[in-house]
Amino acid sequence: MGRITTRRPILKLTLGEGATRRADTLAVEEPLEIRVAGSPLAVTMRTPGHDVELAAGFLVSEGIIARTADFHSAIHCGGPGTGGQENTYNVLDIGLAHGVALPDPDAARRFYTTSSCGVCGKASIDAVRTVSQHPIGDEDVRVGAGQIAALPDRLRAEQAAFDKTGGLHAAALFDADSGELLVLREDVGRHNAVDKVVGWALLNDRLPLRRQVLQVSGRASFELVQKAAMAGIPLLSAVSAPSSLAAELADESGVTLVGFVRGRSMNIYTHAHRVRIDDAAALGASEHSAEGASHAR
Description:
Blueprint: E1 5-14, E2 18-27, E3 30-36, E4 39-46, H1 51-61, E5 71-76, E6 91-96, E7 112-113, E8 143-144, H2 145-157, H3 160-165, E9 169-175, E10 181-187, H4 190-203, E11 212-216, H5 222-230, E12 235-238, H6 244-253, E13 256-262, E14 265-268, E15 275-276, H7 278-296
Parallel strand pairs: 3-6, 4-7, 8-15, 11-12, 12-13
Antiparallel strand pairs: 1-2, 3-4, 5-6, 9-10, 9-11, 13-14
Helix pairs in contact: 1-4, 1-5, 4-5, 5-6
């Protein structure tokens, strides 16, 4: 339970130097079946750990719950073929609060999700345009470009499991006003890492995330924008590229989408008014001044 990494014997080959046998550290990937009131809802491939957060965030992303009061309980239970006796910690049954509607059995996502895709079972792209109970609208939060530029390095510095395996995505929430790192989660699936972060917020009664920035370690895909919008996150920053559909959804839902955040540069794709560019200009001017003074000496 909560096993993030495992060791495996390998043959290490280096051209010109030969081969050696050694042990390598791998990120664990196992299935998690999410049930609601005993009924299977979805299966996702994930890195074990923070499973309750993962399930809670998933339910927020699907529009099944929207606030802490909607969530009642979570229990790991035996998997199929075990007679319900053996607890593999790969089946999690979620209990909803009294009065919260259960997922429609005909519409429930009974599908298999790979670690690289969070919406692979959807019949159509329209089906994932869930209406958020936390609309972003005209959130007045503004974040300095310099602050955003620093987030990837701050994220990377906290990725303990990535240091061991090189195979985990990460997502983190930063306070837009203070810059404080609130929570960081790692997983083999980028969508799972975001679900764990959103689930943490739900379980700690922090939804909606009105004045937070979501930083992710890879690209900004459609499902990540969807999850940010469902949690009321006004700004999503990614190290790599967004997809066209991600940019389209961000524009429609009011999310500020920033991609290719690398070093001193970034691309702002939607709702650029939330990014303060004056501090970036001031930084550039001060650096040029410093360079000029150095040359003058």
